[in-house]
């Protein structure tokens, strides 16, 4: 039986097997723990472990450098040589890579590169689980049922290259989703949280928030489609701006294919997108939202390049004081466009200078407005304007003169996040949030609530 090598040993052994001009090896050690519950009772729990190894081989040729990428799971020492050879064969069989660059070098090694991977387990829920049990008891006595799940993942990534890089990053990712329903299932409310360790989540507070929303829903008010002043909570703002970030590749903008393209050529960099002093930024060291401080690219695409693996990441303002400051670039696309190198970073923060909580923004509302819970099924309609469509979910509430007076029907919306920033009349206090739609792919976000004077509810939806 093959010995299961330590992650750094796997990386070193793969590099020693290389016969091509360059090699990048990424070992991802995964562990996860989860809890699920329904009807005020735990239903399942589990812990998993796994390993994925990605080998990127590069081959220099007369016409340029080619790359080959192969990823496999549960890799042992005996699997290494076939895996490396497969990546090398893929590189030799490929044409020159458009994004080819010299592999990154000169980055100081991580001092913990040879340490064992970090792991999560059921102990991460040691304080959370009893608090959740207390929330079940309160919900039961209050005549509501709680459903949901808590998931914690910890990935230790070991990155080694033939140019001498030896880098390591541990990434914890926790998500909590809680749904409350009335016993007859006619009313539903949702709340979600993002966390690194489940020490900063409060099931009791979330249950109290959901109980209030179920009470609001006791009165039902039907409204037609139209444009309404709308309060977007942080989770909805996150879903919209994450999609905007994913759509901000500099090369696509220069080539005239996105909302960030300038009519007649060029990009909208330097243009004012928002009258409010909004700053949209990413920072691998943002407190509570820490992410990898160097590029980890398992494949190449519009905003990532396998040749950039190990490239250090720095705090980046995408929008600064309302002006478009940066578009995402790899080293290759930066050279093509003449723009600074600005790789994507795995977190996103919007600061607007506001101090009000969402509840205070509701209380400050004059006239009529809608208060949303979250968005889902978001899809792109037009990349030229970044027009998105999607649905509201788990509660749309009518606010009149600072008071929530009932729940209204769901809607389909049609809006561009870029247009929303230009029309936002107020930004609240920035807080950590969990995106509802993109929570499986992007969890590290901090956003304010936004007040939009004329949010386009294009049609009535029968969704819940």
Short structural summary:
With 464 residues, the chain is an alpha+beta fold. It has nine helices and 20 strands.
Largest sheet strand order: 3-2-1-4-5-6
Distance between the termini: 53 Å
Mean pLDDT: 96
What is the count of β-strands?
20
Helix content: 10-25%
The arrangement of helices and strands along the chain is HEEEHHEEEHEEHHEEEHEHEEEEHEEEE
**Biggest beta sheet summary:** 6 strands, antiparallel
pLDDT < 50 stretches: none
Give Rg in angstroms: 24 Å
Structural class: alpha+beta
Can you tell me about this structure?
With 464 residues, this protein is an alpha+beta fold. Helix content is 20%, strand content 38%. The protein has 9 helices and 20 strands. The protein starts with 6 loop residues before the first helix and ends with a strand.
List its salient traits.
9 helices, six-stranded mixed beta sheet, alpha+beta, single chain, 464 residues
Describe the secondary-structure layout:
Blueprint: H1 7-17, E1 22-38, E2 41-61, E3 64-73, H2 77-92, H3 128-141, E4 145-161, E5 166-181, E6 188-195, H4 203-216, E7 220-221, E8 226-232, H5 234-246, H6 250-254, E9 279-282, E10 316-320, E11 323-324, H7 331-337, E12 348-351, H8 358-363, E13 368-382, E14 387-400, E15 403-408, E16 410-415, H9 417-423, E17 426-427, E18 431-433, E19 445-447, E20 450-461
Helix pairs in contact: 1-2, 3-4
């Amino acid at each position: 039986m093959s010995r299961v090598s330590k992650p750094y040993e796997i990386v070193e052994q793969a590099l020693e097997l290389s016969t091509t001009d360059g090699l990048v090896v990424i070992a991802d050690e995964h562990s996860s723990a989860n809890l699920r519950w329904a009807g005020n009772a735990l239903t399942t729990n589990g812990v998993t472990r796994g390993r994925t190894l990605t080998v990127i081989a590069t081959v220099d040729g007369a016409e340029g450098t080619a790359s080959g990428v192969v990823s496999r799971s549960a890799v042992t020492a005996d699997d290494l040589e076939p895996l490396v050879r497969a990546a090398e064969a893929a590189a030799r069989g490929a044409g020159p890579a458009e994004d080819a660059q010299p592999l990154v070098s000169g980055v100081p090694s991580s001092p913990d590169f040879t340490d064992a991977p970090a792991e999560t387990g059921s102990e991460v829920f040691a304080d959370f689980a009893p608090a959740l049990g207390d929330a079940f008891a309160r919900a039961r006595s209050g005549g509501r049922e709680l459903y949901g799940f808590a998931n914690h993942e910890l990935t230790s990534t070991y990155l080694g290259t033939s140019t001498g890089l030896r880098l390591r990053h541990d990434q914890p990712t926790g998500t909590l989703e809680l749904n409350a329903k009335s016993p007859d299932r006619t009313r539903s409310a949702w709340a979600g949280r993002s966390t690194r360790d489940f020490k900063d989540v409060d099931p009791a507070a979330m249950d109290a928030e959901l109980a209030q929303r179920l009470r609001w829903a006791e009165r039902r008010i039907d409204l037609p489609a139209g444009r309404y002043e709308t309060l977007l909570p942080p989770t909805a703002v996150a879903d919209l701006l994450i999609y905007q970030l994913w759509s901000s590749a500099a090369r696509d903008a220069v080539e005239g294919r996105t909302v960030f393209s300038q009519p007649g050529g060029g990009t909208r960099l330097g243009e004012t997108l928002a009258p409010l002093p909004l700053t949209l930024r990413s920072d691998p060291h943002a407190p509570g939202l820490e992410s990898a401080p160097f590029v980890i690219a398992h494949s190449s695409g519009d905003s990532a390049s396998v040749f950039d693996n190990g490239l250090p990441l720095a705090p980046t303002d995408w929008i600064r004081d309302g002006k478009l400051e940066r578009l995402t670039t790899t080293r290759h696309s930066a050279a093509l466009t003449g723009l600074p190198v600005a790789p994507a970073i795995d977190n996103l923060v919007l600061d607007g200078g506001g101090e009000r909580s969402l509840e205070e923004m509701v209380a400050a509302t004059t006239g009529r407005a809608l208060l949303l819970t979250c968005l889902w099924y978001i899809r792109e309609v037009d990349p030229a304007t970044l027009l998105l469509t999607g649905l509201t979910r788990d509660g749309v509430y009518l606010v009149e003169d600072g008071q929530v007076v009932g729940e209204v029907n769901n809607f389909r919306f049609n809006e561009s996040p870029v247009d929303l920033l230009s029309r936002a009349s107020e930004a609240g206090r920035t807080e950590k949030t969990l995106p509802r739609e993109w929570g499986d792919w992007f969890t590290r976000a901090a956003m304010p609530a936004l007040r939009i004077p004329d949010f386009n509810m294009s049609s009535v939806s029968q969704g819940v």
